[in-house]
Amino acid sequence: MVRYVLKRILAIIPVILLIGVAIFTIMYFCPGDPAEIILGGGASKSDVFNLREKMGLNDSYFIQLGRFMYNTFIRFDLGTSYMNGKSVLTEIITRFPRTLVFALSAMLVQIIIGIPLGVTAATHQNGWADRVCMLIALIGVSVPAFWLGLELMLLFSVKLQWLPAYGIDSWKSWILPIIVNSLHGMAMMARQARSSMLEVIRSDYVTTARARGVSERKILYRHALPNALIPIVQTLGNSFGIALGGTVIIENVFSIPGIGQYMTNSITNRDYAVIQGSVVVLSIAFCLVMLLVDVAFGYIDPRIKAQYASKKSKTHKVIRGGANSHA
After folding, report:
1. Looking at residues 40-55, what average pLDDT do you find?
2. What is the DSSP code (8-state) at residue 87?
3. Does residue 324 have a pLDDT over 60?
4. CA nearest 197: which of 221, 218, 225, 223?
């Protein structure tokens, strides 16, 4: 199992490096000059040229790329914001806990609501409960998050005045953003849970358990659901990615001071250093969560354990056989 974890960790490294190259390349070829943005439209060409020289923007693409990769992944320096002169890393460290709590809370809601919806739909296949659950899932997949957020804000904040419309002053401020951010992932989770449960409950061991008189509830939660969780756990990483990506829009709708709002404002202001640093940090967070999901998947799925156990036994046999031949 240790080899499996190390293999996954090593696979993350080139992915993060490629993301760094990709985001730098996109920002490099985007229209707009950071020096002109900093100095304003009234600056002279000589002032713009001198600032570009000072910032290293007159260097070639490969020199700037090498400098960015070295500063980001060796020195852990994400640069300085063009707009306010503050360290990007410091701002991200301040804002990231809010975004992480936001995304994890949304993923928790997806699990708590999405899996029971899928199980209910599977156990009542083609019945009214199945149709209602899949209708909810269809709505969750189809409705845009920003539109739903504005509508819920209009209903619960403006008309009913039950919940705050923006900010994070109290725990009530998190209710609407988490509901909106979790809807799409909850729908995907419900559809995956339904598909997995339908496949499991038709298995021979479930039929045998019913023939032996085991109660339906015990069959469902002790035998069927644990086996159906294997593909569902694999979906958890995608659910976190959806929740993490949703924060970019939802944090702006509800004025939550997280990385999503920070990055969106920097896109508006063409603050390239903030965009690059935010994308790299969010990518690392997503990769780490996918690593945890892979590790959990390895513990749940006995085939992965057996695969690495067989490799380990073969290695011991080869070493032992080589030692015997030398003897």
Report:
1. 80
2. B
3. no
4. 225
Distance CA 271, CA 88 (A): 10
CB 232 within 8 A of CB 192: yes
Q: How far, CA to CA in Å, does 55 sit from each of 6, 51, 77, 78, 153?
A: 39, 6, 15, 14, 43
Q: Where are the domains of the chain?
A: 88-196+227-314
CB 260 within 8 A of CB 250: yes
What would the mean pLDDT of 268-297 be, rounded to a whole number? 84
Distances (CA, A) of 77 to 1, 27, 60: 34, 17, 21
- 263 half-sphere exposure, CB direction, 13 A CA radius: 24
Looking at domain 88-196+227-314, which CATH architecture does it have? Answer: Orthogonal Bundle (1.10)
Q: What is the pLDDT of residues 117-162, one digit of tens each?
A: 888 888 888 888 888 888 888 888 888 888 888 888 888 888 888 8
Is 303 a residue whose pLDDT tops 70? Answer: no
- Measured CA distances, 22 to 27, 33, 240, 276, 279 (Å): 9, 19, 22, 10, 10
pLDDT band at 66 (very low <50, low <70, confident <90, very high): very high
pTM of the predicted structure, to 2 decimals: 0.78
Closest CA to 130 of 194, 66, 217, 55: 194
80: phi then psi, degrees, rounded to nearest 5: -125, 140
